[in-house]
Specification:
Number of helices: 14
Shape: extended
Helix content: 40-55%
Strand content: 15-25%
Oligomer: single chain
Number of domains: 4
Strand order of the largest sheet: 2-1-3-4
Structural class: alpha/beta
Amino acid sequence: MKTAAYCRFSSSHQRETSIRDQYRNIEQYCARLGWPSPVLYQDQGISGARHDRPGYQAMLAAAQARMFDVLLVDDLSRLSRDHIESAQIIRQLKFSGIRIIGVSDGTDTARDSYKLETGLRGLMAEYYLDDLRQKVHRGLTGQALAGYSAGGLPYGYESISDGKGFKRRIVEEQAHWVRYIFRRFAEGASVRTIADELNRKGVPTRRGNTWTHTALYPDAKMIGILGNPIYHGQQIWNRTRWLKDPMTGKRRRIIRPREDWIITEAPELKIVDDALWEAVQARIRARREITAQRKKAGKNSGGRPNKYLFSGLLKCGICGGAYTLQGSHYYGCSTRKNRGTSVCPNTYTVKKSTVENVLLADVREALLSEEAFRKFESQLNEALNSYAPDTKLIKRRIQQAKRERDNLIKAIKSGIITPSTKDALADAEARLDEAQAELQAAEQPVMTIPRAREIYNDLVAHLEAADEHVDHVREALRRILGEIRLIPENGALTAEMNSAGLSGAIYKTLVAGKGFEPMTFGL
């Protein structure tokens, strides 16, 4: 009997000792039954509504590998506070032959009534989480209405407690740079230029990082220094909320209706004067109008997913940042573009066509080898076998048909001869013949589909034309080539591929000259 324990805490009222308390209860339970002490999987300070808990995921991986037979929790809410997730994971573990026991709440999936019990407890756990969330939100609403900070600390401020809550206060050293950002943008500088200037001057962000243009320019949710109304003396809370996508489990920030916003005037927090604030907002409005017109004309759809083979695969050999498509035809270092040469001096860009032609040539050469085709053929046969009929079910049908046939023959030999027995015997023999033929076909070795090599070679030869399947092809390239680092050397870029699918490290020089252009940016 192999046992495992999963323990978790998330509430601010709990501490690391909560894990020890839970595990002690579980150990005592195992000792009473004479079971060995369980292997511990744990998550500290993580909500049970999240699926990406590292200890939780490690436990699921161990369960899939059948590293334990029984999973014990202090109570079912430790496993998940999402009743749908809880039901799914219980179903998954049961399918894997793993028993789940809640030591404190009496849950035991070995009992016939476990579905009713776990369903009710899952709903109660989720209700508790919703109720807790509403109480926290209600408390924060009261703080916001009283002029206190209800979360978040923008650049330029610090948070000071007065015993009743936390008030924001201007940090003049940072406020100086807030005014600098607003003034430079009002003068016509792009946000990328401003970010580069801040990084050159060695100005740290609030977290001590380097600046990027996305921290300055406001998005639709008013996130970005140039659009945050607090710099104009107005605090806004409850503007957005987080929702979890039930399909992906990922959290998304959603804008609330404007009537739900809590707006409080805070003239003591004003950093930017009225004239400068309005000048900046006017320029932002003008730029958004231009963007809207371009979208309407089909020149800039915005937010498009990656549609090129090497998007997301290329890395800068100097800073490690992504090499992204800048414009329609050139790849360049995104760190250099967004944060300036003080952060990354790599000014090399390379044509998209150059990257694809040179790197795809290596991929094709490797994939068109006899060894690569044999691997493809083997995987194809495995896939075909996975869709073969279940011979166990067919054999059971054969045995059942044989029993029916033999019983009917005995009845006939005993003198029970009627039209119905004759029809039943014919039906049993027909079903037996059909099942035996089906078994014979299922046990035949799988033959490779006709023209497999021709189809394979054609797919390899036209990788770059696979528009409808570009995501799948890109992921295949990731497995074949690994990470591709573009290193500037002697007037050219060298592509270094520490390949997972090809042997060793591969180096290819991307030809300089017409493939390269100086990097210039603006917003």
